[in-house]
Design goal:
72% of the residues lie in helices and 0% in strands. It has helices at 2-35, 44-48, 52-59, 61-74, 79-90. Residues 97-102 have low confidence and may be disordered.
Length: 102
């Protein structure tokens, strides 16, 4: 049983490290974007025509990684509700690359 717990803890640490690494990468990219002159935004039609992985990377992954990072730090009793609330509350920060279904 201890071996399984150690493996589980190791996997959890790997996931946390990956989330933190991706969040740091996104923060660095955001800082780089702020230093660059503004570029005309791509029409939403282009985003919708991207391959699945690119579409998700440009629309959902940034806010999802930030939400997962916050979730890992706070460890709420209801993680799914916490993540759903986080996504709803913070989606305005990412609406430039996503569309609203509401």
């Amino acid at each position: 049983m201890a071996e399984g717990e150690a493996e589980s803890a190791s996997q959890e640490n790997n996931v946390k490290d990956a989330v933190v690494e991706n969040v740091d990468k996104l923060a660095a990219e955001e800082n780089d974007k702020e230093a660059e002159p503004p570029v005309a935004k791509k029409p939403k039609v282009e985003v919708q025509s991207l391959p699945t992985r690119q579409y998700l990377d440009q629309t959902v992954v940034p806010i999802l990684l930030q939400g997962l990072s916050t979730l890992a730090k706070e460890r709420p009793a209801e993680p799914i509700d916490f993540l759903a609330d986080y996504l709803r509350k913070n989606k305005a920060q990412y609406d430039g690359s996503t569309t609203s279904a509401s």
